Amino acid sequence: MDSQTGAKVDAGSRAGIIDGKAFAAGVRADVARHVARLKSDHGIIPGLAVVLVGTDPASEVYVRNKGIQTREAGMQSFEHKLSETASQDELMALIARLNADPAVHGILVQLPLPRHMDADAVINAIDPAKDVDGFHVLNVGLLGTGQKAMVPCTPLGCLMLLRDRLGDLSGLNAVVIGRSNIVGKPMAQLLLRESCTVTVAHSRTRDLAAVCRGADILVAAVGRPRMIRGDWIKPGATVIDVGINRIAEGDRTRLVGDVDFDSAVGVAGAITPVPGGVGPMTIACLLANTLTACCRANGLAEPEGLTV
């Protein structure tokens, strides 16, 4: 029985499970070491500001966890909460103050925002150098043209897991299922940087199963529970499941990915579970991006292995 997923797996299959929780702990420890060195050698403390608008329970938990892990890494954590009825002008004014604050190296506005706010305008109001989510249009363009950018946290975490598992990705066939601005598109750009041959598939892809079967690397980020079945996967492929879906099972709910883990685990060469796979990497990479932004702002060398 797999402790992460509750699925029955044999010893041989279990060896291929990618432990994102353990890897993320290593990333956070690495960040903390770099932060301690910045403090001792330069008197600099990286600072992350997180802005939450409204009282969405899931967002509140996520923001609280970000604050805890930021402080545990030795960074400064600045949390700002606005009411559900706050105006967009109020939010824009707060972002302007954070842009101008030298103690703040990273700014993250928690999504989703209330319906009366323009999320694109809010994201693009953040200083691109402090855009640790990597969503600003300038960072999107820099990433797409192969230049130095702030990289979205979840795709960055996926790439770290792939590099750790496979080493050189050059020449591998990669299929990304999903074309969102947050995961699918930047994931494809990162894999292109690694010299993969990349296909972006989506809901209108013809014979999606056949496309998936050609993948050495399969990244599922479509937001549909257990959509990708084991018979869609090339034997020995590396599967990165970005999906986090809540499904009802009797009188309780359970988290599952976009991949049907039970049928996929015996086919894939390596696979991330849900939970315990990609999820923990997102906050770890947020901390890494904040550290990177701080180093860039102060003209210092960027930490190796924590950026691209």
From TrEMBL:
It holds the Pfam family THF_DHG_CYH. CDD domains: NAD_bind_m-THF_DH_Cyclohyd (cd01080). The keyword Protein biosynthesis does not apply. Pathway: One-carbon metabolism; tetrahydrofolate interconversion. Keywords: Amino-acid biosynthesis, Histidine biosynthesis, Hydrolase, Methionine biosynthesis, Multifunctional enzyme, NADP, One-carbon metabolism, Oxidoreductase, Purine biosynthesis. Residues 18-133 form the Tetrahydrofolate dehydrogenase/cyclohydrolase catalytic domain. Catalyzes the oxidation of 5,10-methylenetetrahydrofolate to 5,10-methenyltetrahydrofolate and then the hydrolysis of 5,10-methenyltetrahydrofolate to 10-formyltetrahydrofolate. Homodimer. Belongs to the tetrahydrofolate dehydrogenase/cyclohydrolase family. This is Bifunctional protein FolD. It comes from Paracoccus mangrovi. The gene is folD.
